[in-house]
Amino acid sequence: TEETLVLVKPDGVARGLTGAILARIEAKGYSLVDLRLVEPERGRLEQHYAEHEGKPFYEPLVEFMMSGPSVAIRLAGNRVIEGFRSLAGTTDPTTAAPGTIRGDFGRDWGVKVQQNLVHGSDSPESAARELEIWFG
Ligand code: GTP
Ligand code: MG
């Protein structure tokens, strides 16, 4: 079985969507291994988003991620990395397919950062790296 890091980002927590998002994850059959409310400092976010350093949305993204608490989840299941990203939908919430978390709940607010509610690791290597950052 595989593990991934899921974050309910500050927009999801602030909008009270944590429960709705967890319900979809649980209904799909994935297992919650660990879960915590976190208010990350800049250093942790810079590590987490290292691959995006230098991109125009990087700094606004880091700021946004410090704007309120996130829920970090260690999630387990067969092919859960791919499976959660499928549940989440594509990055842009405006065009994410209906039926996905981003497609159903996300919206492009016209700000610099897409407030797309969730993060999910994109590969086994990313999952290992990110789980270490958020859960140690
Ligand atoms: P995550 O699961 O959050 O990693 O999403 P992703 O893998 O679909 O996207 P990616 O890793 O490419 O980008 C990480 C985050 O940066 C996204 O979730 C968005 O919040 C933001 N982001 C990515 N690309 C863009 C972009 O082109 N413009 C803006 N404004 N934000 C972006
Ligand atoms: Mg990503």
UniProtKB/TrEMBL annotation:
CC cofactor: Mg(2+)
Catalytic activity: a 2'-deoxyribonucleoside 5'-diphosphate + ATP = a 2'-deoxyribonucleoside 5'-triphosphate + ADP
Domain Nucleoside diphosphate kinase-like: 1-136
Family, as annotated: Belongs to the NDK family.
Family annotation (InterPro entries): NDK-like_dom, NDK-like_dom_sf, Nucleoside_diP_kinase, Nucleoside_diP_kinase_AS
GO biological process: CTP biosynthetic process; GTP biosynthetic process; UTP biosynthetic process
Molecular function terms, GO-annotated: ATP binding; metal ion binding; nucleoside diphosphate kinase activity
EC number: 2.7.4.6
Residues binding ATP, per UniProt: K9, F57, R85, T91, R102, N116
Entries under NCBIfam families matching the protein: PRK00668.1 (NF001908)
Name assigned to this protein: Nucleoside diphosphate kinase
Active site: H119 (pros-phosphohistidine intermediate)
UniProt keyword terms in alphabetical order: ATP-binding, Kinase, Magnesium, Metal-binding, Nucleotide metabolism, Nucleotide-binding, Transferase
Organism: Microbacterium ginsengisoli
